[in-house]
Amino acid sequence: MDPMTIALISVAFLFAFIILGVHVGVALASISAISIWAMTGKATVAVNLLQTTAYSAVMDYVFAVIPLFVLMGLFSTLSGATKELFGTAQFFLGRIKGGIGIATVIANAIFAAITGVSVASAAVFSKIAYPEMERLQYDRKFSMGIIAGSAILGMLIPPSILMIVYGVLTEQSIGKLFMAGFIPGIVTALVISLGIRTMIFFKPRLGGVTAEFKPFTFRTMVSETATSWAIIALIILVLGGIWGGLFTPTEAGAVGAAGAFILVVVKRQFNLRNIWNVLLDGGQTTASIFMLLICAQMYSRMLTISGLASKISQWATTLPVAPVFIILGFILVFLLLGCIIDSVSIMLLTIPIMHPVIEKLGYDPIWFAIVAIISIEIGLLTPPFGMVVFSMKSALGGKTTIEEIFQGSFPFLLMLGISLAIIMAFPILSTWLPSLM
Fold first, then answer.
1. pLDDT on residue 212
2. Helix%, strand%, coil% for the chain, nearest 5
3. Which residue, 35, 273, 288, 393, has most beta carbons within 10 Å?
4. Sign of CA dihedral 237, 178, 411, 425
5. What would the pLDDT profile of 288-301 be if each residue is shown by its tens digit?
């Protein structure tokens, strides 16, 4: 059997294993090893490749950025910065109908610049924003939809774990990828905010009652903003340092983690139990990502050996359709996979095959990264998998049901679709900031 046929069969088995519930890392590594054995006829080649990949796939200096940004997010959450961000946004926006919902979106956008993980954003704001919206008599499903929809910003606004994974898989600049997500993140936040206002305009009862706050004076503005200045300054330092060339992404991650740790100390949240829990959570998150990266590199090398990736890119460029339809096909794949597996796994499975096609078609890989991330993240709100939805259910416990969160999320899927269409129609939104670096 020729290598191309073996590779095609292996990809089919890979998706079958994942649908059956086999862990993505185990499926990637085992099928890749067996496929290489079948291609070469030597089991030792497959074993040796697995051994060398386990070391070489994550030995690069750039991989240190993953645990550093994970720690930055965990330390920032521990310091109480999330509550302060929400409180500040609530003060400025809470006076308008639906303002608490928009405050949740804005706070989520800023928190995204700390954590880089949508699931974490969903869990945190389920505990902070939902009780406040419940107090103000917001519609339950509407409240949950706001939290779920805005949590998607966690992977779009830098720093983002998905951007790091994409950069590693495609050898793109992680710094440029970070900058590429900034404007699309703002656009998405604006689309969601306008969507909230539009829904309340047609159904005022969704927005409950308007909250009462301190008088809107210069003194109160300064006092409310002062509570969030430290975390905002840290975000500006990290992202501004990358954009200005002061730091590499890895160095920026170190600065961010150190700054967030200082916040923990200043906010008097430092104790051995808290620090141990943060380090344990950070280690578990990093280890799971690294395992997937190692297994994905094995999969990528198998595709390279077989020649399947280059063959698919050649075939795609000869199709009698406009290139945009190929992009739409890729987006459909992302959306379908989002129904059954997590976002990092989707990227690891698809990008090694899609990236050569994108380059062959002449599209900017940086732009496609943002399109891919938004598409993949939309999948986190779709049944039956919906990781963001399950994260919210875990955080809220018996206060809601899975079905209720999915129903509340549906209008926000449409809003995210509008945002995706804007990013596709105007690539400069993704490519302008990276071009200035």
1. 66
2. 80, 0, 20
3. 35
4. positive
5. 878 877 887 788 77
